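Observation: inputs received (chain + S-adenosylmethionine).
Thought: call the complex predictor directly.
Action: predict_structure
Action Input:
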Amino acid sequence: MPLVHLHFPTLLDGSSSCELPPRNVEFDVIFDPSETTLEEVATLFTSKVSRNTGASRTPWKVRHFVSSSSLFPPSPTLSPHIIRSPYIPPSPLPRLWKPDSMVSSILLPLLLNLPSPISIILDLGSGAGRDVCYLSESLLSSNPSVTVVGIDKHKGSARRSLPLWSKRGVSNNSSHELLDLKKLPLFDAYMASLPHPINCCYAVRYMNLPLFSHLSSNLPIGCVFALSHFVVDLDGTFNYDHPSISDVLKLGEMEGMFKCVEEGGDWKILRNDRVKDSDVGRTLINFVVRREVGKNMKEGKRKRDDQGGDHN
Ligand SMILES: C[S@@+](CC[C@H](N)C(=O)[O-])C[C@H]1O[C@@H](n2cnc3c(N)ncnc32)[C@H](O)[C@@H]1O
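Observation:
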């Protein structure tokens, strides 16, 4: 289990932290008794009522609360030069949360092996910014100029993401764009304002079919598009309370949109896997494609075909 430093006084003030693990994950809490009391910490993690809203909530699964003074008693014999030696944080920093599995197991290896250097990656519907953070941290050492942009229409997204990115040292490589992705002209204007063509665009548990269709025609050649989202079962049903069936992909919907080269389209399908989510076993599709053919190439080929036809 990784060891992650959280600032308790900030949490006790009612702020949330994106570093906290999901509520079904067991973990231990080590607290500094000079900073806070056992009672305060225990109330924070085990209360079944939200202090901010009064609504009922699931408490975290804390196994033990341990005072740091019992683990690290003050030692007068420590030599001063040990105390002064510089602390070099591990990179990437340990984390109690997990990025989306498609992002970590498919997208990251692909991005690390792209032939051209990566400059801009977009996360559509980025939420709390964890996948943005993960990719920034993971790509930074091989590519210091990479920028991962989280796009979301909710102000709370930036409010949660920015402190996480700052704490984990990726503020210079991560940015947030407050944008309603249902407004395609605004999205196009944003794309046109970017200093470089984008290399990758992905969405995790965010479905916006008009936008995806627009991207399938307009992303630049070489660009990767990836989606991890709920899909109906093979018999066409989706027997879960959440999300509603209107927010679930139908069978073959993404392949129909991102047509592959063999079928006269522009895309190469790199992955199209059905996987189960770790919560309740809903099926997700991990769909990853790369644009192989551009608009101009198609136009050139059409002209060449036409000219060839004239000669015969
Ligand atoms: C289910 S959450 C997923 C968040 C994140 N990708 C993740 O996997 O944790 C969907 C996100 O999409 C955002 N969203 C919904 N509609 C949007 C829209 N029209 N434009 C931009 N973001 C939107 C929501 O604010 C939310 O943060």
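Thought: report the result.
Final Answer: Residues 100, 125-127, 152-154, 157, 180-182, 204-206 surround S-adenosylmethionine (CB under 6 Å). The first strand starts at residue 26 and ends at 31.
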